[in-house]
Specification:
The complex is a heterodimer of chains A (206) and B (244). In chain A, helix 2 runs parallel beside helix 4 and helix 3 packs antiparallel against helix 4. Chain A is 23% helix and 36% strand. In chain A, the strands form four sheets. In chain A, strands 7-8-9-11-10 form a five-stranded mixed barrel. A three-stranded antiparallel β-sheet of chain A has the order 1-5-6, with no helix packed on it. A three-stranded antiparallel β-sheet of chain A has the order 2-4-3, with no helix packed on it. Chain A is of the alpha+beta class and 206 residues long. Chain A is built from four helices and 14 strands. In chain B, the strands form three sheets. A five-stranded mixed β-sheet of chain B has the order 3-4-5-7-6. In chain B, strands 8, 9, 10, 11 and 12 form a five-stranded antiparallel β-sheet that branches. The longest helix of chain B is centred in the last third of the chain and has 29 residues. The N and C termini of chain B lie far apart (59 Å). The chains are: A alpha+beta (206), B alpha+beta (244). The interface between A and B is medium-sized, with 29 and 32 residues.
Chain lengths: 206, 244
């Protein structure tokens, strides 16, 4: 069932993504689907802010006094601060993945545990579609990764890092998820599309 | 000059000039998600009004001295296309009237958007009037609300706006251009349908207290229809959802 902003979801206050609480009741704040049988609430648009412990992917955009600025697409800028025992050396333009340690003043994202990602491409996708692309227990991502023989890391900030020879096919898979995220049986559909494209690619080689 | 003194006959046989009853809306059609490059968009046809609304954001506020570290700011632009109208309204660019409507529309949306979720952010709302036939600020706000929902911006409610007017002793809703120019009073209101909070109320002309109450009541009643059409537009945009 489609829920639009202002509709009552629960009579008791509950804190979840895409809702707000007023007068002890929970109301919907963004367009979402609610499955009453499975008690499943999925936001269709928008995204919101990162949470602590999320893995994000970004590019280094500058550094000053042992603080690195990381561009995190939808989340804006993140900060990576060198500690007493952690020493990093990144150049401008490096792609890194990191863990969110804290969010200060509601908007400044503090990162830790950076990892350089060498080569590859960053694909930006809609924030609300990330859970769908990951799939239940990583089914979708693992399937795409296996079929196309690429390495995929999904950042919770909407950036997906892809490395391998079939990057273009992963890109079209992401496009498909963005467009048809509300269709059931999407994993099979994406699988079909990838297999078709791989066959075509092999034909062109011959 | 258009005024209530030299007004033409606005009622014929107990009906309005276009054959509507006093509490009847013009045909309303909304489509959500029409623009590819905007985060959210909506196209609205309300009688002869044609409006396109687009929303960008939330993003980092571009002019830093306007940015608020505690909440997002809204930038709102109402503009009429140069071909939208026959008279002086059609002059393009930010004129006095467009500036005023942009300001009141911004204040309407400040009441419903959950701005605290995006400190230092900015949300851009654009309302372009392609063709005008009276009640364009109501049409613009109604379209922009759908565009905001389409963009996934968290809001307390999906609001609508509608205008009420007075022709002699009769209260009417959804006034068109002719009624707007020559009627005795007209009053656009924007409403949050969840609790019927009134977010915008402007009045041109005069009502008695009783007429005012009647006008509000009629506007709220017709608003139920508008709200349903807004919801249908969003449902059509995501129509495959219910197919399991």
């Amino acid at each position: 069932m489609l829920m639009i902003p202002g509709e009552k979801l629960f009579d008791e206050p509950k804190k979840m993504n895409g809702t707000y609480v007023e007068n002890g009741a929970t109301y919907v704040s963004t367009v979402a689907i609610f499955d009453n049988e499975r008690k499943n609430f999925a936001v269709l648009e928008g995204g919101g802010m990162p949470r602590v412990e999320d893995i994000v992917i970004g590019t280094v955009s500058g550094s000053r006094n042992r603080v690195y600025n990381i561009e995190l697409s939808y989340f804006g800028k993140g900060l990576l601060i060198e500690g007493k025992y952690e020493k990093y050396s990144f150049n401008e333009g490096d792609i890194i993945s990191a863990r969110v340690k804290d969010i200060e003043y509601g908007k400044t994202v503090i990162l830790v545990q950076p990892r350089t990602l060498i080569g590859g491409t960053i694909i930006n996708m809609k924030l609300a579609r990330i859970p769908r692309f990951i799939g239940r227990e990583n089914t979708m991502v693992n399937m795409v990764s296996e079929l196309t023989k690429t390495k995929i890391i999904v950042g919770k900030n909407g950036s997906v890092w892809v490395k391998g020879e079939n990057e273009d096919i992963v890109m079209s898979a992401i496009e498909m998820v963005e467009k048809e995220s509300h269709v059931s049986g999407l994993t099979d559909k994406v699988k079909e599309m990838i297999e078709k494209k791989l066959m075509q690619k092999e034909k062109n080689k011959v | 000059m258009a005024s209530s003194l030299n007004k033409p006959e606005l009622l014929k046989n107990g009906k309005r000039l276009d054959g509507r009853d006093f509490n009847q809306l013009r045909n309303l059609k909304i489509e959500a998600g029409v623009l590819k490059n905007a985060d959210g968009s909506a196209y609205l046809e309300w009688g002869n009004n044609k409006v396109i609304a687009a929303v960008f954001g939330p993003k980092e506020a571009t002019s830093k001295h306007f940015a608020d570290p505690n909440k997002a700011i809204i930038k709102c632009r109402y503009a009429m296309a140069p071909f939208s109208s026959l008279e002086e309204h059609g002059r393009t660019g930010p004129n006095r009237r467009a500036t005023e409507i942009s300001k009141v529309a911004k204040e309407v949306f400040e009441n419903v958007i959950l701005l605290n979720e995006f400190p230092g952010g900015e949300i851009d709302i654009y309302m372009e009037i392609l063709q005008s036939d009276g009640g364009t600020r109501a049409a613009g706000i109604t379209a922009a609300a759908v565009a905001l929902a389409n963009a996934g911006i968290p809001m307390k409610d999906l609001i609508y706006a509608v205008s009420a007017g007075r022709i002699d002793e009769h209260i009417v809703v959804d006034v068109d251009m002719l009624e707007d120019n020559y009627s005795d009073a007209d009053m656009p209101i924007a409403v949050s349908p969840r609790n019927n909070n009134i977010l915008l109320l402007q009045m041109d002309g005069g009502f008695t207290r009783k007429q005012f109450d009647e006008a509000i009541e009629m506007a709220l009643e017709s608003g139920k229809e508008i709200h349903k059409i807004q919801k249908d537009a969003l449902e059509r945009c995501y129509k495959n959802i219910n197919e399991k």
